[in-house]
Amino acid sequence: MAQNTSMEEFEALLNESFEIDTPSEGSVVKGKVIAIEAGQAIIDVGYKMEGRVELKEFANPGEAPEIEIGDEVEVFLDRVENARGEAVISRDKARREEAWDRLEKAYADDARVEGAIFGRVKGGFTVDLGGAVAFLPGSQVDVRPVRDAGPLMGLKQPFQILKMDRRRGNIVVSRRAILEESRAEQRAEVIAKLTEGDAVDGVVKNITEYGAFVDLGGVDGLLHVTDMAWRRVNHPSEILSIGETVKVQVIKINKETHRISLGMKQLQDDPWDTVGAKYPIATVHKGRVTNITDYGAFVELEPGVEGLVHVSEMSWTKKNVHPGKIVSTSQEVDVMVLEIDQAKRRVSLGLKQCMRNPWEVFAETHPEGTEVEGEVKNITEFGLFIGLDNDIDGMVHLSDLSWDQRGEEAIQNYRKGDMVKAVVTEVDTDKERISLSVKALEGDPFAEAVGGVKRGSVITVTVTSIEEGGIEVEYEGMKSFIRRSDLSRDRAEQRPERFQVGDHVDVRVTNIDSKSRRLGLSIKAREIAEEKEAVQQYGSSDSGASLGDILGAALKGDEK
C-alpha cells in the first residue's frame, strides 16, 4: 500500500516537472549560449533541447552582433524538435513579440519609441523599433522635404507611433512629429526672448522667390523681399546667399502662430526722408529704367527711390504704343519731377517734358501761310493726315482740298503714301493740332473774280444755261444762278426762255457768299435800282410828271 502511494507521488512530481520545464511551442523562452560556430549560436533552451540561431539576428541594423558563450537570451520556440532533433528557435521573432508588447503600451500612452532607419521602400523608409519593423512615410521624415536621407540611416533616434495593427503587422511612425514638438518648444523659448524692434543676428537658411528664411538660433523668421532694401529687389539672391550671417530687425511677432517677420532696410536710413528736398518739382534728373509695365516705366532716381513715368508722359507724339517701344530696362534717361506724394511714397515723372513740345517748335518754324510737304499717313471721312517733321501730323479738312470739287470727290484723288504739298493755316499748340490746306497753294479764283465787286455793283454776265426755274450765268469763270422771280421787274417778262445761251446781261449783285462761293444776282434788282435813280435825278412824285416822262427824259439825258 505504501509502495503504491510512493509511485503515485513520483508520477505526480514527474508530470509537474514536465509541465514546469517543458516549454510550449509558439512562446518566448529563455536559453543559454553554449557554443558559436559557422555563423550561428547554439542555444540550450532547457529540457535537453538545443537550437541554432543565425548571429545576424543578434545584431541591430548597421551594427555587428554582440553575443558571447554563456550569455542568456530570449528566443521564440517555433517547434520543439525538427528533423535533426533540434529545437526550431528564432531571436528575431522573440524580439518582435517583445517589441509589439512594448510598442502597444507606448502607443496607448502616446509615448515616444526609439528606432533606427535601416531601409528604403516605395513612398518612405523602414524603421527597426527594437525587433518590430515600422513604415516611415517620406512626408514624415522631417519638417521640410529631405533630399538625402543617408545621414539618418542606422542612427538611433525617437519616433512617434501614428497607428499600428498587430493582427496585420502594420506600424506607421513619424520622425517629423518629434521634430515639430521639439521645434515648437525651442521656438517658444527663443520667441519669449525677442521683442519687436530688436536688432538681431541671423543666418540665411533658405531663399525663395518672395524672400528668405533666417535662423535666429532655433527659430526661423521670414525676411520678405520688400523688406530687404529700400530699392527694388527682383530676387533675394541679388543681395543674400545661403549660410550668410545678416543683421535684421524684428518687425512683428505672432505669438499664436510663432511667426516672425524680419526686415533689413529698417536698419538703414530711409531715402524718402529727403526726397522732397533733393527732387523739387519741375527739376530734371538722370535715372535708370528698372521695370516696364503696360501703363508706364519705373525709373530709379537713387537706390530706394523710384518714380513712375506714366505712358501718357513718355512721348509727345507716340500716344498708343507700349512703353517698351520707347524705353528699355536699364536704360539711363532724363526725367522731370512732376509730382511727389510723400505719404504714399510716390514720385510722378515725365520723359517728354525733357524735350521741347514739337507743336510749339513747329509753330515757331512754320508760321501760318508756310508751305510744307509730307506723306499721306491716313485718310479718314473728314480729311487727310499728313506726316510732318518730328513725328507730328497735320490735317487737311475735306473743305480745304479743292476750290472746285466737293471734298468727298476731291479726297478720292489721294492714296496713303502720296507726297502732298499744303499750306499751314493754323497751329493750336494746346490741342496739338495743325490745320493744313491744299487748295490754298493756288489763289482763290472766287476771291480773284469778285475782288472788285461789291454788294450793289452792276456787272455783266454771260448766260450759260436756260432752266425752267431761271437761268445760269457766268462771271469771270464763276457760275451763278438767277431765279425766275429775279429775271425782271415786270412779272410778264420773268420768262427764262426770252434769254439765249451766250447772251450778255447786266445784273445787280445782291449778295457775296464767300463760304458757298456764290454771287447773288438779280436783273429785277438792277431795274428797280435804275428806276429809283431816274426818279431822284429827273423828277419826283410831287412834280406831276409820269414815270414814262421821267424815263424818257433820263434816256434823252443819256444820249446827250
Calculate Rg over CA atoms.
Answer: 57 Å
Biggest beta-sheet profile? 5 strands, antiparallel
As a percent range, the share of strand residues is: 35-45%
**What class do helices, strands and sheet pairing give?**
alpha+beta
The average pLDDT is 81
What does this structure look like?
The protein has 560 residues and is an alpha+beta fold. 19% of the residues lie in helices and 38% in strands. It has 9 helices and 30 strands. The chain has helices at residues 2-21, 91-108, 176-193, 275-278, 358-365, 407-410, 445-449, 523-538, 547-559; strands at residues 27-37, 40-46, 49-54, 72-79, 88-90, 112-121, 124-128, 133-137, 156-165, 170-174, 199-207, 211-215, 220-224, 245-254, 259-263, 284-293, 296-302, 305-310, 332-341, 346-350, 371-380, 383-387, 393-397, 419-428, 433-437, 458-467, 470-475, 478-483, 504-513, 518-522. The strands form 6 sheets. A 5-stranded antiparallel sheet has the order 3-2-1-4-5. The chain has a 5-stranded antiparallel sheet with strand order 8-7-6-9-10. A hairpin with a 4-residue loop joins strand 14 (245-254) and strand 15. Helix 8 crosses helix 9. The longest helix is centred in the first third of the chain and has 20 residues, at 2-21. Keywords: Repeat, Ribonucleoprotein, Ribosomal protein, RNA-binding. Residues 26-92, 110-176, 197-265, 282-352, 369-439, 456-524 form the S1 motif domain.
